[in-house]
Amino acid sequence: MLMKIAFGFFVVISSTHQTFTEKVHDGSLNKQLEKCPPMLVKGRVQRAAGCDLVFITPDRTDHYLLPSSYTAANLDACLNNSVLAANLTELGNLAFNKDQLFVIKRKLGEIYPRGLPQEEIKKLGIILTVYTIDDISQWNITDPDVLAEAVQNTGSAAMTIALQSHYLKELGVLDATALNVIDGPMLCTASEEKLETISRTELRKVKPIDISACSQAKKGIIFGIAKHAFQHHTANRQTYYNMMKPYLGGATAADLRILAISRINMDYETFVRLNPAEVEKLSAQRLRGLLGRNLNYLKENESQEIVQHWVDSHTAAEVMSLGIGLRKGESSAELGTFPFQDLLIPDYALNNLASVKNNNLLSSTYIAVMGIILQYV
Ligand SMILES: *[C@@H]1O[C@H](CO)[C@@H](O)[C@H](O)[C@H]1NC(C)=O
Ligand SMILES: *[C@@H]1O[C@H](CO)[C@@H](O)[C@H](O)[C@H]1NC(C)=O
Ligand SMILES: *[C@@H]1O[C@H](CO)[C@@H](O)[C@H](O)[C@H]1NC(C)=O
Ligand SMILES: *[C@@H]1O[C@H](CO)[C@@H](O)[C@H](O)[C@H]1NC(C)=O
């Protein structure tokens, strides 16, 4: 209590002092005040502790001169919490500087000690820029409009990420508004259960989502929703393909066979994002059907994993039957019958092997080492 009084006293002294110096040194402030005398210059009758200018009344909270007329200390003394609470939208639209914004943030903390409610977050405007990632973690944003508003108001990429990831952990709905605000890679961090809640109606309304960072299971979920969302376009193959394109990483071999029959001439960029484990189930004929006039890219990019996968899981004759000069290379042909003892196992791996006593662990380590070697062959 004593502390509080002492502090209050200090604020009074310092704000008076500041205004005084400003009045001496800053002619522009005086000019500004002269421009709107009835509004901002303190009347003789009004004399409340601390506020040297006039108290900011609700009807003045949208005045564009407030930021230049009230220093942070003035604002602290002349803006009542009740007015701030009632006119947050108006104040959030004014060009306050950081010091002034910190004063407003502190006052909001007094009004909402347990964190800002969603409806208020939506009104913050420029005030949002002085909130930290820690502050955000105490908010419960479940309304997609609040998320969209907050993401739009924060200037920082880190804050955007924090808002998005926080939203995904809370009970926020994944409707079109939210999906348009949450970047693909961030969306991939949502749980599978959460992704399953995306409705086809909402997916139809959003800009294409980049699912390349998602796990295969999550790609499958989003693909499944897209398949239903765009099924009414199947009559026009090209339109259907264009709409499904962003989501084909989740397609199964059966889905790909249907596309192959539709002769959609899949572009190579889309092809490399398919699931190699599904592509490898396609026959040469289907692969040709799928890529159509883009088939030659397979040869040009033959060292890529997805091409290698397919080649490795088909016979030399079938690979040749593509007719683009792609061959089962010597190294990949030999791999199938490579004797283990002839493999060059790096020293560090051998040392690890030697120190492993447990047999099961030994064999799984061996398999892991094999995996590493296979990747480098
Ligand atoms: C703000 O609070 C002070 C002190 O309680 C009061 O005198 C003043 O009228 C209030 N101003 C507004 C605009 O509510
Ligand atoms: C401030 O809020 C009050 C109460 O909601 C409202 O009547 C008033 O119009 C607001 N002021 C401005 C400038 O919009
Ligand atoms: C956010 O939710 C948690 C848990 O439901 C609750 O304890 C907390 O008070 C909420 N915070 C706000 C600002 O609503
Ligand atoms: C495939 O090969 C072509 C020609 O070499 C190259 O331009 C293209 O970038 C490659 N595609 C991918 C996805 O790497």
TrEMBL record:
Give the record's keywords alphabetically. Cell adhesion, Glycoprotein, Membrane, Signal
Q: What is its main location?
A: membrane
Q: Which GO terms describe its cellular component?
A: cell surface; membrane
- Sequence intervals crossing the membrane: none
**Where is it located?**
Membrane
Q: Which GO terms describe its biological process?
A: cell-matrix adhesion
Q: Which positions carry the signal peptide feature in this UniProt record?
A: 1-21
Q: Which domain of life is it from?
A: Eukaryota
The record ties this protein, via Pfam families, to:
Mesothelin
| Entries under InterPro entries matching the protein | Mesothelin (IPR010335), Stereocilin-rel (IPR026664)
The similarity comment for this entry is:
Belongs to the mesothelin family.
The protein in question is named Uncharacterized protein
